[in-house]
Structures are given as structure tokens and as C-alpha cells.
Amino acid sequence: MSPEVFAFFDEATNTISYVVKDPAGVSCAVIDSVLDFDYASGRTDTRSADAIIAFIRQHDLKVEWLLESHVHADHLSAAPYIQDAVGGKIGIGDNIRVVQDTFGKVFNEGTEFQRDGSQFDRLFVDGDSLHIGQMRGDVMHTPGHTPACLTYVIGDAAFVGDTLFMPDFGTARCDFPGGSSETLYNSIQKILSLPDETRIFVGHDYKAPGRDDYAWETTVGAQKAANIHVGAGTSKDAFVSMRDSRDATLAMPRLIIPSLQINMRAGQMPEPDEKGDVFLKVPINKL
């Protein structure tokens, strides 16, 4: 089965969110939604999420899932906001517990912050399946960028999050806590073992040098042949050496501090104080 895929590009964070629809009905899933955030003012905005909600309502779609490919470090999730508006269950990888434990310590969250993934409606493990109407999706655990990264294989489409980018841009960084370039290489090989004609939808695009337009859809065959980091039979040793050297030169994502605190809570803000005000923490020399 070939799902209908509708992309929503957020240029502020270079994120692509997806509405994935059962072609035989009205059921759909939303993958990797965005809550807009202005770091300078500390203000949130819902225009990106509202565009998705408007699309869903315009086409009378039924949201069954709000899927996260991982705990994003570069944008805030709008999953609970969309859930309140149009429904759906929020799902992420079971290894969210590892991420919560790691960053619960980084942000000194204390015992009140639950590290068992209970903020999410469903925790997926490798080999799990889900349904969007009559359409089946299979879950692949593809860690390396983070411990909880998933690829959702829905019909002839694979939603890879940050694991792979477009062939001319390469692969995800692996220098966050719990990341591993060797693990990422192994995960990518799982994705590349899918049929060559499988459509791949990436989570971000940054316009590779020489390319004028943003892009987010490619195929397994194209990745195998031309991905600048892992294509054309690149060995694990060569990839690990390249990835680790490259990662050592990268700055932290602009929104990593707010993103991690909110996304490890399934898109919810930290508990407000007695006045109803919400605060985020900035750990010094921790990241």
C-alpha cells in the first residue's frame, strides 16, 4: 500500500512535518510536528501546528497517531496541542526512558519528573506495528543520532527522522549524549535493506551546496547509490572516522535547551509555579 503523504516545511527550524493518510479512507497520522518558539522572547506560537490542524479539518481526516521519530534537539513538538484539537495517540520509541534519565540529570529535574515514558500514550520497540485505518506501519529502532530514534515504515514509505538526510547532505550527527556513529551506521544499513523503490521522507533539509530548493523525498535506491556519507558502499570505519571528525566541529543546535526539556515531556511544558508561570532551565557547561 502506498500512503498519501503531505509535507509541511518549517523554514525557521528546517523541519518537515508529515500528514500520512490511508489512501482507502480518512485515517491519518502526524509525524514530527512543530511548535514555533522565539528563544529571544521565550514566546511560543502555534502557526505551524495550526496549518496542520486546518489541513486535517479541511479534508475531514481522522487522526489516529501523533508520531515522534525521536526527542528532537532542534525544535519543540506540537503533539499535545494537535492532540487537544483533533485527537490521536502520541507515540515514540521505548528508549525514551534512556533519554529521560540522561537529560533529567542534565536539567536537574528531580524526582517529580517521571523517567518511565508515561508522558506518552505508546512506547514502541523494534518490530512493533501500528495501523492507520487499513494501512499497516512497522517500527524500526534506528538509534545512533539518539538512543530512541525510530523509523516508521508505512506501506512503501519510510519516515527516517534525522537518521538520514537527502543524499546530497548526508547523515545525522552523533555527538549528543547517548549518540554513536557506529550505531548510526548499523541503523542506516537496516534502512538501506528496504526495497530500493521505498520512498524515504527525511526530517530536515538544509539545501546542500549547489541546490536551490528544499527537498525531503528520496528513495532507498538513491540513498544507497549517492548519499555522500554512506552511499556507494562506504565502509563502517570510513563512516565513523568521517562522522566523528565532522561532529567535533559542530555547534549545538540553537533550540536544544528548550527542545530537550519540552520534548522529553511529550511536548508538554514543565510544571508551572504557584503563580502559574512556566520556566525552563539553562544548564551551564553541561552540553
Question: Would you summarize the structure shown here?
Answer:
With 287 residues, the chain is an alpha/beta fold.
Strand-helix topology:
Elements: E1 4-10, E2 15-21, E3 27-31, E4 36-38, E5 43-45, H1 47-58, E6 62-67, H2 79-86, E7 89-93, H3 96-106, E8 122-124, E9 129-132, E10 135-141, E11 150-154, E12 157-159, H4 181-192, E13 199-201, E14 217-219, H5 220-226, H6 236-247, H7 256-263
Parallel strand pairs: 3-6, 6-7, 7-8, 12-13
Antiparallel strand pairs: 1-2, 2-3, 4-5, 9-10, 10-11, 11-12, 13-14
Helix pairs in contact: 1-2, 4-6
Describe the structure.
The chain is an alpha/beta fold and 287 residues long. Helices cover 24% and strands 22% of the residues. The strands form three sheets. It has a six-stranded mixed beta sheet with strand order 1-2-3-6-7-8, with helices on one face. A six-stranded mixed beta sheet has the order 9-10-11-12-13-14. Helix 2 links the parallel strand 6 and strand 7 (89-93). It is globular. The model has no long low-confidence stretch (mean pLDDT 97).
Backbone structural class: alpha/beta
Roughly what percent helix? 10-25%
Oligomer: single chain
Q: What is the N-to-C succession of helices and strands?
A: EEEEEHEHEHEEEEEHEEHHH
Based on CA atoms alone, the radius of gyration comes out at 18 Å
Going by CATH, the homologous superfamily would be Ribonuclease Z/Hydroxyacylglutathione hydrolase-like
Cα end-to-end separation: 43 Å
Number of strands: 14
